[in-house]
Design goal:
The protein is of the alpha/beta class. Helix content is about 50%, strand content about 15%. The chain is built from nine helices and nine strands. The chain is globular, with a radius of gyration of 18 Å. The structure holds NADP nicotinamide-adenine-dinucleotide phosphate. Belongs to the short-chain dehydrogenases/reductases (SDR) family.
Length: about 260
């Protein structure tokens, strides 16, 4: 039984890896920074005595999912949990953004989620067991001016996951979209505190919330009561244009400030 976690070199992905290792799963850690992955792997092996494999891969590369699937097969890894967590955002207006960076964002946040899911799902279906967690965001629920591609990419994750949930009914395979609000990770080291909307919560608390939600039949879950109100209730009460304007106000780029590239 192994949990495969993308974006496991820091933040939310690292917290998932710690939890699954603590619960006795072998884990496979995926991200670009091999040194960081190796450090996480050493810590998990020492603390939990589980098998930890590291696959250094850039998920903006079209061929990454095939290479990861081949590495998993070569290692004889049976995947019972897939956490599609790797993702990043670009905090800038579209007109000011680097086109290649926006394409990479779509590939990592959307393309890699689909690519990893399609590589791992057949084995889960054959065993009639498995769990897939796709990390969305409170940004999944409304357009996000100044982080337009990020918001659209997270809306994709939510829509993809909810549709997949319906397709997987009765198969024994469980899928959920986990939608965090602001969470204390490296996201804000690069984004700056200005990108933080609302109180930031802990990544461990988010993972607890996800595991509790997986015990229900939900297709998606928002972390935090206030976040759920803003993400799920407010859009039903006010017009979408107003909701978009509010989101734009929350993520607004101060005048004269150079656009920041952010990871998270
Ligand atoms: N923190 C928040 O407030 C927040 C809120 C809502 C949703 N989220 C979502 O949570 C997820 C995790 O983010 P985080 O907050 O934990 O931020 P983080 O600490 O910056 O972690 C991002 C992870 O994604 C990996 N990654 C980024 N680009 C990659 C690429 N091209 N190929 C492979 N791996 C890549 C990074 O590893 P390498 O750099 O080593 O590749 C890192 O492990 C993201 O999908 C993010 O959108 C975060």
């Amino acid at each position: 039984m192994a949990a495969v976690i993308t974006g496991a070199s820091s933040g939310i992905g690292k917290a998932f890896a710690e939890r699954y290792a603590h619960d006795g799963h072998d884990v496979v850690l995926i991200a670009r920074r091999r040194d960081r992955l190796d450090a996480v792997a050493d810590e998990l092996r020492e603390r939990h005595g589980v098998r930890v494999d590291v696959i250094a891969a850039d998920l903006s590369d079209d061929s990454a999912a095939d290479r990861i699937a081949a590495a998993l097969e070569a290692a004889g890894t049976r995947v019972d949990v897939l956490v599609n967590n790797a993702g990043f955002g670009v905090h800038a207006d579209v007109a000011e953004s680097d086109a290649a960076a926006l394409s990479r964002q779509v590939q990592v946040n959307c393309g890699a989620v689909v690519a990893m899911t399609t590589r791992i799902l057949p084995g889960m279906l054959a065993r009639r067991a498995g769990t897939i967690v796709n990390v969305g965001s409170t940004a999944s629920f409304q357009p996000v001016p100044h982080m337009a591609v990020y918001g659209a990419s997270k809306a994709f994750v939510l829509s993809f996951t909810e549709a997949l949930w319906e397709e997987l009914r009765g198969t024994g395979v469980r899928v959920i979209a986990l939608c965090p609000g602001a969470t204390e990770t490296e996201f804000f080291e690069t984004a700056g505190e200005a990108a933080k909307t609302g109180r930031a919560r802990g990544a461990d608390d988010l993972v607890d919330h996800c595991l509790r939600s997986l015990a229900t039949s939900k297709s998606s879950t928002v972390h935090g009561f206030e976040n759920a109100l803003v993400a799920r209730v407010l859009p039903r009460l006010i017009p979408r244009k107003l909701m978009t304007a509010i989101a734009g106000r929350a993520t607004g780029l101060p005048a004269q400030r150079p656009a920041d590239a952010v990871a998270g």
